[in-house]
Specification:
11 helices; 315 residues; two-stranded antiparallel sheet
């Protein structure tokens, strides 16, 4: 496992990190989820990503139990706020920042999180209010560093222009071989200002594993067949897209990698990416994906992959 600096922070995060969206505390049973956590540590993964809204606290609660007993400085823990935790509790107001960090820390059974991320931008709260509150909880020692997810270039620049507040060190966008929107503006802006990318859905909701064959029933036990975990997958299950993905398999074989490893290595080719977040329901998935960190793949193979996918890239 290789490690990269997270923006302007002093954190070094593993190339591959373990996420918990739709999985832990929700779609994967506890014993399997704990086995994945153990596998992650065995594979050298040191960054665990979650959010308060995942399962309305269920993912954080699971992680609080699963990580109990491990040395707190042996892993980097990130969570988020913004999404609805109740009919009244949502957004990035100062009141919510103070309330949600305390609730997250309680569920996670820890005194601090290494990275606290704004899950989305909150247009209903002045940015000055949000940043002042976030700066306050950093000073209180409850949070080490700050990040955001899916902010527009304008949102990011507005935060960069503020003085007297803690600076963001991470951005968490969707980014993969089939979703390249961040390349145009977000990545260059962040790279110029000490902000790294922590990528979510680097396997395009799992389709870049190659396990979904167009025109056939989806394999049992996969995300596409799970009522708990197939949210947001419909757009990715297009036959033209799945056919193009199948055409990538010979390139991955030439690289000596599985298709999932090839896709993860493609994401990691970008210097501004600090880590790619994987989801896993089985330990063997963790080990396979983690191995992508050490791959050295000819850029010409990536160029061929880009040409194959160009007609079907999502945006």
């Amino acid at each position: 496992m290789q490690y990269r600096q997270l923006g302007s922070s002093d954190l070094k995060v593993s190339d591959i990190s373990l996420g918990s969206w739709l999985t832990y505390g929700v779609g994967v049973d506890t014993s399997a989820a704990k086995a994945c956590i153990d596998a992650a540590f065995d594979a050298g993964i040191n960054f665990i990503d979650t959010a308060n809204v995942y399962g309305r606290g269920a993912a954080e609660t699971f992680l609080g139990d699963a990580l109990l007993g491990r040395k707190r400085d042996s892993y980097i823990l990130g969570t988020k706020l913004m999404g609805p935790m109740s009919d009244e509790d949502r957004g990035l107001s100062a009141a919510q920042v103070y309330k949600q960090i305390d609730a997250s820390l309680a569920r996670l059974k820890t005194d601090y999180v290494d990275l606290y991320q704004c899950h989305r931008y909150d247009p209903e709260t002045p940015l000055e209010e949000t940043m002042a509150a976030l700066t306050d909880i950093v000073k209180q020692g409850k949070v080490r560093y700050l990040g955001f997810s899916e902010w527009s270039p304008k949102n990011i620049q507005d935060a960069l222009d503020m003085t007297g507040v803690e600076k963001f060190v991470s951005s968490q966008p969707q980014y993969s071989m089939v979703w390249r929107r961040p390349e145009e503006k977000v990545i260059p802006l962040c790279a110029a200002n000490g902000i790294s990318q922590i990528v979510w859905s680097p396997l395009g909701q799992g389709i870049l594993s190659g396990k979904y064959i167009p025109g056939t029933d989806f394999p049992e036990g996969t995300r596409a067949t799970s009522d708990d975990m197939n949210n947001f997958m419909e757009r990715w299950l297009d036959d033209d897209l799945l056919t193009a993905v199948q055409a990538l398999k010979p390139l991955a074989e030439e690289a000596g990698a599985s298709l999932a490893q090839f896709a993860l290595a493609w994401v990691l080719r970008e210097p501004n990416v600090a880590s790619a977040i994987i989801g896993a329901s089985r330990p063997e998935q963790v080990f396979e994906n983690a191995a992508a960190s050490d791959l050295k793949i000819d850029a010409a193979l990536f160029a061929k992959a880009d040409e194959i996918l160009k007609p079907v890239q999502q945006s």
